[in-house]
Amino acid sequence: MERKTRRAAWLLGTLLALPAIGILGQTFTDIGAGLVGLEDGGAAWGDFDGDGDLDIAVTGNSDDVGAAVIYRNDDGAFTDIGAPLAPADDNASVAWGDYDNDGDLDLLLTGDEVDGRGAVSLIYENDAGTFTEVDAGLIGVSDGMGAWADFDNDGDLDVFLIGEEDNGDDIATIYRNDDGLFTDTEAGLIRLEDNSHGSWGDYDNDGDLDLLVSGDHDDADEVTALYRNDDGVLVDIGAGLVPMEDGASAWGDYDGDGDLDILIAGNTDDGTDTSLIYRNDDGVFHDIGAGLFGVNDDGSAAWGDYDNDGDLDVLLAGDDDDNTEVILVYRNDGGLFVDIGAAIEGSDDSAAAWGDYDGDGDLDVLAMGDPPSGPDATRVYRNDGGATNTPPAPPTRLRASVSGSDVLLTWRPGWDTETPQPGLTYNARMGTTPGGPEILSAMSDAATGYRHVPAMGNANHSNVLPLRGLSPGTYYWSVQSVDTAFAGSEFAVEESVAVGIVDASVALDPGWTLLSLPAPSVTDGLPALVDAGVDTAFRWDATAQTYALVDVDALDFVSSGYFVHRNPTLPAASPTLSLAIGAPEAASVSMAIAQGWNLVGVPDGGMSARDISPSPNTVFAWDGGRYRVASLLNPFRGYWVFNPSEAYMVEAAQLRYRAGPTGNGAARVTPRPDISIALTLRMADGQRRDAYVGVSDAASDAFDDMDLPQPPPSPRRGDPSFWIVGAGAAGRLMRSIVPARDGAAEWIAVVDAAGDAVLAVDPGSVPAGHRVTLRSSRGDTSRGDGLRVSAGRHEFHVTVSRDAPAATRLLPNYPSPFNPDTWIPFELSHAADVSVTIYDLAGRAVRRLAVGRREAGYYTRRGDAVHWDGQNANGEPVSSGTYIYEMRAGSTRRMRRLVVGK
Q1: Which residues contact 116 (CB under 8 A, 6 or more apart)?
Q2: Distance of alpha carbon 43 from alpha carbon 145, whole angstroms
Q3: For 576-700, where are the alpha helices, taking DSSP H only?
Q4: Residues 797 and 833 in one domain
């Protein structure tokens, strides 16, 4: 088209647009940035020098004179840094991305190199602001574009290329980035050219990027195809989108429902210039009839929230069937798109992009192309709308789960005062150093969260991000929220995750330690343990129920715990073990829990006692030379597990692989004993051992949940042992609870000591009205001061009985007031026939409760006290009010009042 004709058309279009401009107001102002005027190329914002403001990269031509320039933003003044870039046009493109994960932005450039190299696809590495061409070996493309995307979720940016090769063939392919080496994946994409375009976005929120492409196939058919990413395999889903060429596309969640919608523009197969918005409804895309101006001819389409109201607006650039050049801004009003009359001069062969160059909190516009009013122009338009943006809050509850060399990052959503929560995107980073980007670059400032590129986060709207193929080591990661104006929150509190080999310190107690390994050692044996003075190790033979001596250098992981001995005269030490935590065989270990005692280990991340035993009080830790019941089991420690019944299997999985408890059923709740009395064995050298006896109506004579088994003693010679005799596999008990018979209970206790000791009853544990008697096999008896015990093995009889009350008493009923049930407790100083009669206040007998003959004792518990159900002798509920109850015990009479509630 002749420039004179285009200028006339532009003038007419401007005059016709004046009423709209007057109504909606001019929001954007050309700042006169002094940039080289270009068309038929690409333009992109990016903070390449990390100084907190957006710089510019452009490429294209002006009257067939090529240029490719990087402009540094110095407080709003743009300076050409003289980067040695290859000038390219023919629908050229530029894209910022940190392909080498060093924390600064590198540049991808595609197009037809004006100086004669033909079609090129070039990577320029940023080294402290100096750009050097990388010998990446990418096939050159023109009449298309290039884009960065981590399509294989390994943390580094791969390269997508689409367009026309130098030989005229169409192409669409992905180069996988393997530590800076690029390999054509031969992804099987449809080959497109004629201003073809592609854009990446996770439309199905499964944590990997999907691909939308459009263009011309074999100079015949327009195509728009959506490829779903299935673990690195791209599958055309047949989305039913309008076929287009000669245009552009972009992903964005315009309706704030948490999934990506599509903005696409171009020329359809009937020659109509079209701009459409497709709403994503669970992976099915519907044209919303947005009424956008149809553009093509190397145009642009971009989402961005220019007015900071929390929803995505639209930026379109290009020309239509009548060669009307436009750059339009559409405001999103609840899903209705309104042209605001931004008065940005239109261009063909154009490019336009959102970015907040002046840091005032709203999105400005970078636009380039061939306008009808004059020569090629590249302009920066300042947004003077006045609505500022508040950055969002960061995500919370960061979690990482490991599967071999893969890690799944998850988090809870952030929030924002403008953008609805589902409309936020998320941007993760991971490094080998705290705050570092060595594995996954967020292209954001680690300290402030400032985004170096105006784009949604690398996880898009998903709250999960898988990273694959990590080498063994410890990784540090975090994630930020990104709102619709591309403002990033601060990063969440950094977390770490161990993958593969991890160096871990092991705390060794003086003398004996109950130890386990959560993963196999990567060294030859365990020299660190030997160097720390560990000279002996015992495992437990669950079949023979006895210890077995093993080599310190041959300790297995997880499936067994070990008693290891370290010379107690040596200084304290915490040797460091190199373990393959991420080894596949350490992810989950099957353990057989035999009947009787088992000495087991713990996987990485720990586990609970419920994960390994369904019975309460059957898992024990060795703590300071004494056993205690364990509830949380920690890695590097061994634990005793008592199984009173048949053998079963436990899958001891690392925490990151575990979906829930792995034990044999849910743990049962242990009833509390009515009486629990502490017995203590004190050695002359200060060592102490405890055991407990008690009484409960809920107990049985056989081993049950109220009993507490005692693990085998440590292999150390001379350690004292003290236990209550049980039955069967539970032959040694730390606590024995039995039912009382005739008001008394009896046990046998065993002491095995290498020296003198004293066996005594803790008087504070003996309830009122009871007495405890210790009697040795020689007939020695103690009721308070304890028994002296000589070296050797001795048996003792322990008896708990009730003392008779000093007087017969009638006690207050409980509960009170009540309706309908209450219990009436009493005490008898002597045996008697007992009855209780209820009277009303007029003295009339309401109900007589015959108790029968009772021995002297305490009848205060619900099982012993007199029960009244609140009914009279005819079985009718009594009225609320005050009543008298009288107890007769032989010749003794006692009376009290009770109250029946409403």
Answers
A1: none
A2: 12
A3: 584-587, 609-612
A4: no
Is it the case that residue 859 has pLDDT exceeding 60? yes
pTM of the model: 0.61
Per DSSP, the three-state class of 664 is coil
Strands 106-113 and 118-127: antiparallel
Please, which pLDDT band fits residue 199 given cuts at 50, 70 and 90? very high
Give the closest residue to 244 by CA, choosing from 209, 171, 194: 194
Range of the domain at 694: 675-802
Would you put residue 291 in left (φ > 0), alpha (ψ -120 to 50) or beta? Answer: left
Residues in CB range of 891: below 8 A, 6 or more apart: none
Omega before 711 within 30 of 0, i.e. cis: no
Residues 99 and 112 occupy one common structural domain: yes
CB atoms closer than 10 angstroms to residue 476: 18
Domains in the chain, number: 6
Regarding whether 75 and 57 lie in a shared domain, the answer is: yes
- Using an 8 Å Cβ cutoff, are 377 and 331 in contact? no
Residue 336 has a CB neighbour count (10 Å cut-off) of: 11
Which residues partner with 151 through β-bridges? none
Rounded to an integer, what distance in angstroms lies between the CA atom of residue 425 and that of residue 455? 10
Rg of the chain over Cα atoms, rounded to whole angstroms, equals: 41
pLDDT of residue 678: 92
Task: Please report, for residues 149, 553, 610, 714, the alpha-carbon distance to residue 626 in angstroms, rounded to integers and kept in the order given.
Answer: 57, 26, 22, 9
Query: What is the rounded (10 degree) CA torsion for 358, 361, 362, 363?
Result: 60
| DSSP state at residue 818 | B
Q: Is 78 helix (H, G, I), strand (E, B) or coil?
A: strand
Tens-place pLDDT, residues 707-740: 888 888 888 777 788 999 987 778 889 899 998 8
User: CA geometry: angle at 420 spanning 415 and 423, to 5°?
Assistant: 95
Query: Would you say residue 238 lies in a domain?
Result: no
333, 364, 389 — which closes off a domain? 389
Say if residues 213 and 197 touch (Cβ distance below 8 Å).
yes
Q: How confident is the model over 525-561, as pLDDT tens digits?
A: 788 898 888 989 999 999 999 999 999 988 999 999 9
pLDDT digits (tens, 9 = 90+) for 452-483: 999 999 999 999 999 998 887 789 999 999 99
Residue 121 contacts residue 162 (beta carbons within 8 Å): no
> What's the CA gap between 93 and 561, in Å, rounded?
61
Alpha helices by DSSP H, listed for 525-613, are: 527-531, 584-587, 609-612
**Chain CA centroid to CA 786, Å:** 55
Contact, 350 vs 361, CB < 8 A? no
Put residue 705 in one of left, alpha, beta given phi > 0 → left and psi -120 to 50 → alpha: alpha
